[in-house]
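quick one before i forget lol
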Amino acid sequence: MMKEHGERSKADFGSAAGTMKKYDVTALGELLIDFTENGVSGQGNPLFEANPGGAPCNVLAMLSKLGRNTAFIGKVGKDVFGERLKTALEEAGIDAQYLRMDEKIHTTLALVHTFPGGDREFSFYRNPGADMMLTEEEIPEELIRNSRIFHL
């Protein structure tokens, strides 16, 4: 059967040099909470909604929706936000076993202001944040070798 231009089968995507890989894409990077404006309170104050954020996991979430096997390497705080992010990864179908949780450093937070035209401005709260504290020793080389694509 002929494929449409640009269409690839899962087998095509998951193989490199004839060997199958466990993951189509593994990403390394930041994972944080984006507090986005979501209305105004009765007192006229802005209301913020806590959303999972971070470009690497946004990519993985979309790939998972398309049926790809994905994994994430990163670090969050062992706090309420870090637990929420781990759950969000799992719910999106992203392998979260390589997510490290720091006992001492908190999960990074970002306040997001959206302008009327759609542009956004971010104010990050990290001093440092757990996402900045991932060490070389915490990066599983075997996972990277077992991935078709490594995104960072």
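fyi The longest helix spans residues 80-91.
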